[in-house]
Amino acid sequence: QVQLVESGGGLVQAGGSLRLSCAASGRTVSSYHMGWFRQAPGKEREFLVGISPSGNTWYGDSVKGRFTVSRDNAKNTVYLQMNSLKPEDTARYYCAAGVGWAHWGQGTQVTVSS
Q: pLDDT tier at 1 (50, 70, 90 boundaries)?
């Protein structure tokens, strides 16, 4: 069983940056697709970015050019670098892993003030 723990969220001003981490435990995730999602109050969960075991990436339109995903398989960790943050990026951010995003973390809150 895979456990995922997100960290790195917080309060930041518009235009600022944050780097989120997703640490996996229980088993190695080097062969897993990993992804980042977010959910704001009253809104549906939104796909942000995915990264394959080999490092191929695909991004949702809302974050393309501002967010960058990476992974360190030796550390069993995936990162999300978020730049040029906007108030509308305020949400709880989740990482997910595996086929059909079978595994989820509890999320980390990101709040962007204007």
A: confident
Phi then psi for 99, rounded to 5 degrees? -65, 130
Determine the Cα–Cα distance for residues 105 and 22; give it in Å rounded to an integer.
8
How far apart CA 6 and CA 23 sit, in angstroms, is 6
Q: Which amino acid is at 48?
A: L
- pLDDT, tens only, 68-106: 999 999 999 999 999 999 999 999 999 999 999 999 999
Calculate the CA 104 to chain-centre distance: 11
DSSP secondary structure letter of residue 28? -
How many other CB atoms are there within 10 angstroms of residue 99's CB atom? 8
